[in-house]
Design a protein that fits this description.
Elements: E1 7-16, E2 19-28, E3 34-39, E4 46-53, E5 56-60, H1 82-93, H2 98-114, E6 119-124, H3 140-152, E7 155-162, H4 184-197, E8 206-207, E9 210-211, H5 219-229, E10 234-238, H6 242-252, H7 256-263, E11 270-274, H8 280-289, E12 292-295, H9 297-302, H10 310-315, E13 319-322, H11 332-347, H12 360-376, E14 391-394, H13 407-416, E15 422-427, E16 430-434, E17 437-438, H14 441-458
Parallel strand pairs: 1-4, 5-6, 6-7, 7-8, 7-9, 10-11, 11-12, 12-13
Antiparallel strand pairs: 1-2, 2-3, 4-14, 14-15, 15-16, 16-17
Helix pairs in contact: 2-3, 2-14, 12-13
Bound molecules: zinc ion.
Zinc ion binds at residues 59, 61, 123, 237, 273, 325.
Length: 459
């Protein structure tokens, strides 16, 4: 029997769907969902200061964590850009074996949990051996991502990536891309085997699909993979780079967001990653679609992608969530802060996304929680009966949180604090972070160090 049955969490302050409440007792059932939320209770069970719904990190490429900080030198001839970064990434990929992938994934998932995320949307495109030959099990590397999630307890939305071509003109994959590539038939088989591997996880795990981008799949390929998804999550990179927009305009006469909205029934199970390159009418169209914009502010800053049209998008009712993408740095508070600061720097104002009713921190946090859950296909994002118990506790005695109430707590956390304020995290009721540390942190860190040592020798 699960040790979860009968778990209770008592919070001095908690953010419930209808607002902030004091002395809240949350009960968790054996299947990881919230069985009761009672207000005005006496303390019992695990006691925490401030309890929030924990968001899902909706976009990650786990293996890229291992190259964080490795691409900050400048070439002499070229203007350093996303495309030079991608060349380094492709070289790095050639060195990775399945054990490395699993150790890196476990490490990055642990960091995500310690940062306050309860789940991750793993946009998984590394499928084959170096050289492009499939493993005996087509979904071997999905199995490794799943094994990492089983170890760390993160809520996994696994998104096997369909990657066909090296560009919009349907050119063949380059040497750096052959570990990603599949034709539609092989991808369908891979997807089925990945589905089987998810059975090793608890019931909160989700399988979706991820057509990589409009530059990597053809029109028929995209339609096929969308059909494969049915109602499940569909994630796709979209309109990240100016070069990619120009390529698509050249080939199809339309910008990426405009093309997608016109050619597909984009709705609430879609999550479009980045969308940094949009014209105002595309921003409004995307907001109206009900899809989630998957924003990755730290990575988008790191890669010089551009600034998301956030104020217009939110004013139009657009939904968004946060992803850590390249995993150069895992920090929920910093992602939210960077998103807001990007808007301020562009518009030369303050409190850019705040509304008369809700502070900046509250708008950012609410958006990340509800959009993340939607994008992950996860019944979570609210501290309410029936939802998975994805819970994030902040230390109410932290200097910048002590004595704060209501939305001031979130403003202090996002703008004055950092992830050291995170004391505990539950993912579908699994108590994975305790006292700010992952419960298996020592072993996971040691395995990652060993992997990095091996990789340094191989590179
Ligand atoms: Zn990405």
């Amino acid at each position: 029997m699960s040790t979860r049955a009968g778990t209770k969490v008592f919070a001095e302050k908690a953010l419930l769907p209808h607002g902030w409440v004091e002395n809240v007792l949350v009960s968790i059932s054996e299947n990881g969902s919230i069985s009761a939320v009672e207000q005005g209770q006496a303390p019992s069970g695990k006691r925490v200061g401030i309890l929030l719904p924990a968001p899902v990190n909706l976009h990650s490429h786990a293996f890229q964590r291992a190259m964080a900080g490795m691409s900050e030198r400048r070439g002499e001839e070229v203007r350093d850009s996303f495309w030079t970064w991608r060349q380094i990434m492709f070289r790095f990929l050639d060195a990775l074996d399945p054990d490395d992938v699993e150790a890196i994934a476990a490490f990055v998932q642990m960091e995500m949990l310690e940062a306050g995320y309860a789940g991750v949307g793993e946009f998984h495109y590394l499928h084959h051996q170096p050289g492009g030959v499939p493993y005996d099990n087509l979904a071997e590397l999905s199995v490794r991502i799943v094994a990492a999630a089983s170890e760390t307890g993160i809520g996994l939305t696994h998104l096997p990536v369909f990657y066909q071509y090296g560009g919009v003109d349907l050119r063949a994959l380059g040497p750096g891309q052959i570990r990603f590539g599949n034709d539609p038939d092989r991808f369908a088989r891979l997807h089925e085997q990945a589905a089987g591997s998810l059975k090793a996880l608890e019931a909160d795990a989700v399988l979706g699909v991820a057509p990589h981008s409009l530059r990597a799949v053809c029109e028929e390929g995209l339609a096929g993979v969308v059909a494969l998804a049915g109602e499940r999550p569909v994630h796709m990179h979209l309109a990240e780079q100016v070069g990619e927009v120009e390529e698509l305009v050249g080939a199809r006469g339309q910008r990426p967001v405009a093309w997608l909205l016109e050619n597909h029934d984009v709705s609430s199970n879609w999550c479009l990653i980045h969308c940094t390159q949009m014209m105002p009418e595309e921003t409004l169209g995307l907001a109206k679609s009900g899809a989630v914009a998957g924003l990755c502010p730290i990575t988008e800053s790191s890669l010089g992608d551009g600034i998301f049209d956030g104020v217009r998008y939110l004013q139009a009712g657009g939904r968004f969530g946060i992803g850590s993408d390249s995993n150069i740095r895992i920090s929920l508070s910093e992602e939210l802060r960077t998103l807001e600061y990007s808007q301020r720097l562009r518009d030369k104002n303050r409190a850019a996304v705040a509304t008369p009713e809700r502070s900046t921190g509250r708008v950012l946090f609410d958006g990340a929680v509800s959009g993340g859950a939607q994008a992950a296909g996860r019944n979570a994002g609210r501290i309410a009966q029936g939802c998975f118990a994805d819970l994030l506790a902040l230390d109410g005695t932290a200097i910048d949180l002590e004595g704060r109430d209501g939305d001031d707590i979130l403003d202090a956390y996002v703008f004055a604090g950092d992830d050291r304020m995170v004391s505990d995290v539950w993912s579908a009721g699994r108590h994975v972070v305790c006292g700010g540390k992952h419960v298996k942190g020592d072993a996971i860190r040691a395995a990652y160090r060993a992997t990095m040592k091996r990789l340094r020798n191989r590179l």
